[in-house]
Write a structure and sequence with these properties.
Layout (H helix, E strand, L loop, with lengths): L1 H21 L1 H24 L7 H16 L6 H21 L5 H27 L3 H26 L3 E3 L3 E5 H24 L8 H14 L1 H13 L15 H23 L2
Antiparallel strand pairs: 1-2
C-alpha cells in the first residue's frame, strides 16, 4: 500500500513540478489538467445526491479563468463570465421546464464549483508569473505539503482531541497545532535557501515564516470543505483515479486555499 502511494505520488508530482519549473504554457496546461479533472470529480460527487452540475460548462469556466490569468492584458474574463453565466442559467431553466425540480440547485453548484476550483486554481499561474515566481511557488506549495505531513505525524503520535469529528474524524487539534507550529519554521529556512540560490531581496525568512504560518493555519479549510462535500455525497474519496490517494480533488483541496493566501499576501504585503 505504501509503495503504491509513493508510485502514485511520483506519477502526479513529477509532471506537476516540471510544469512549475518550466512555467509558461506548461504551467497553464498543468492548471487546466488539474482544474478539469477536479471539476469532473465534483460533478460525480454531487450526482451521488441527485444533483446535476453541468460538467461541460464547468470546464469552460475553468478554461476562462486560466486564460484570464495567462493573458492579464487581455480583457477576457468579464465577457466570458457573462456568456457562461447566461448559458448556465439557460441550461438550468431548460432542465426545470423538463420537470427537474432542483434545477436551480444545479445552476448554483455549477457556478460555485467552477469558481471555487477554477478561479482559485488559476492563481497558480499568477503566482508563477510574479517576479521570482518560481521561488515563491516553491514557498507556497511546500507550505501545504509540510503542514499536511506535520499534522499527520504529530496527530498520529500525540493526537487525542478530534478537530472536526463529524467531517474528518482522523484530524486532531494536536496534529493541526503541530502543523501550525512546525510549518513556518521550515518555510523560513526554505526562504533562506532560495535566497542563497538567487532569489531576490523580497525573499526573506520573515515573509517565509508568515506565509508558512498562514497557509498551515488556513489551508486545512480547503481539506475540510471537500471532506464535507464527500460526507454529503457518502463518498470516501473524490474518485479512484490515483491509486492510494483517491482523486485529484483530494490532492488539491488544501492547495486551492493556499494559492489564494500566498498570492494575495505577496501582492498586498511584499510586492515582489
Amino acid at each position: 500500500m505504501v509503495r503504491q502511494r509513493l508510485i502514485s505520488a511520483a506519477f502526479i508530482m513529477v509532471p506537476f513540478l516540471i510544469g512549475i519549473i518550466a512555467g509558461g504554457v506548461w504551467m497553464q496546461l498543468a492548471a487546466l489538467f488539474f482544474g478539469g479533472a477536479s471539476v469532473i470529480e465534483f460533478v460525480h460527487l454531487v450526482a451521488r445526491r441527485g444533483h446535476r452540475a453541468f460538467g461541460g460548462l464547468m470546464l469552460l469556466w475553468v478554461i476562462a479563468f486560466v486564460l484570464d490569468r495567462s493573458l492579464p492584458g487581455v480583457p477576457l474574463l468579464e465577457p466570458s463570465m457573462a456568456l457562461l453565466l447566461i448559458a448556465t442559467l439557460a441550461w438550468a431553466l431548460a432542465r426545470f421546464r423538463q420537470g427537474t425540480a432542483n434545477a436551480f440547485t444545479g445552476f448554483a453548484m455549477t457556478i460555485g464549483g467552477a469558481v471555487y476550483i477554477g478561479w482559485s486554481g488559476a492563481h497558480l499561474i499568477s503566482l508563477r508569473a510574479l517576479p521570482d515566481g518560481l521561488f515563491w511557488t516553491l514557498i507556497v506549495m511546500p507550505s501545504v505539503w509540510i503542514a499536511d505531513s506535520a499534522a499527520y505525524l504529530v496527530g498520529r503520535a500525540f493526537g487525542r482531541v478530534r478537530l472536526v469529528p463529524d467531517v474528518s474524524p482522523s484530524k486532531t487539534w494536536e496534529g493541526y497545532l503541530g502543523g501550525v507550529i512546525l510549518t513556518p519554521i521550515f518555510i523560513a529556512g526554505l526562504a533562506m535557501l532560495w535566497r542563497s540560490l538567487g532569489a531576490g531581496p523580497a525573499m526573506t525568512p520573515g515573509h517565509g515564516f508568515i506565509i508558512g504560518f498562514l497557509i498551515a493555519a488556513l489551508s486545512p479549510l480547503g481539506d475540510l470543505g471537500i471532506s464535507m462535500l464527500k460526507r454529503y455525497a457518502n463518498a470516501k474519496d473524490s474518485s479512484n483515479w490515483i491509486p492510494g490517494h483517491g482523486g485529484f480533488l483530494d490532492r488539491v483541496d488544501s492547495v486551492l486555499v493556499a494559492l489564494l493566501i500566498g498570492y494575495y499576501y505577496l501582492i498586498l504585503f511584499v510586492r515582489p
